């Protein structure tokens, strides 16, 4: 006997559904590898403002420990009144489901403020993952940081 699964998405959007999945996966990851994450220090990433863009230079492992740094950079973008936030993945080695959840939450905030989120220097492997979960539908990906900055010229925050 087969049962049909009846899902209702009346008050959800796609990003909410993706976020809930990754929050659940984060709990599983934490249970399986939690002791490793507790030993790591909070991550801080450098930022730079270039031509009406805030560039966040990500590095190393992207986990829940990068959340404060990512949202501090976003607050900096709000203060600087930039139209575009660019995440530079050039030095990223690893992303877990909690790290992806951080980016989904950032994307929600960026879309609420009608700003742009661009991704630069994403490896082929991470690009496949981001495409599979749908992040590339909501943010543009570029091979280089310079391409992302060039494409952002002339973009304004829509109010």
TrEMBL record:
InterPro entries: Anti-sigma_ant (IPR003658), STAS_dom (IPR002645), STAS_dom_sf (IPR036513). Pfam families: STAS. Residues 43-152 form the STAS domain. Belongs to the anti-sigma-factor antagonist family. This is Anti-sigma factor antagonist. It comes from candidate division CSSED10-310 bacterium. The lineage of its organism: Bacteria, Bacteria division CSSED10-310.
């Amino acid at each position: 006997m087969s049962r049909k699964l009846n899902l209702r998405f009346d008050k959800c959007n796609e990003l909410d559904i993706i976020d809930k999945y990754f929050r659940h996966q984060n709990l599983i990851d934490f249970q399986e590898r939690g002791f490793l994450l507790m030993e790591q220090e909070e991550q801080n990433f450098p930022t730079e403002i270039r031509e009406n863009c805030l560039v966040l230079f990500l590095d190393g492992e992207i986990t829940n420990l990068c959340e404060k740094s990512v949202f501090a950079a976003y607050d900096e973008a709000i203060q600087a009144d930039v139209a575009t936030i660019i995440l530079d993945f050039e030095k990223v080695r690893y992303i877990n489901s909690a790290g992806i959840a951080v980016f989904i939450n950032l994307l929600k905030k960026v879309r609420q403020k009608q700003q742009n989120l661009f991704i630069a220097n994403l490896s082929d492997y991470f690009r496949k993952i981001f495409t599979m979960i749908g992040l590339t539908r909501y943010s543009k990906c570029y091979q280089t940081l310079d391409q992302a900055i060039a494409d952002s010229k002339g973009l304004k925050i829509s109010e």
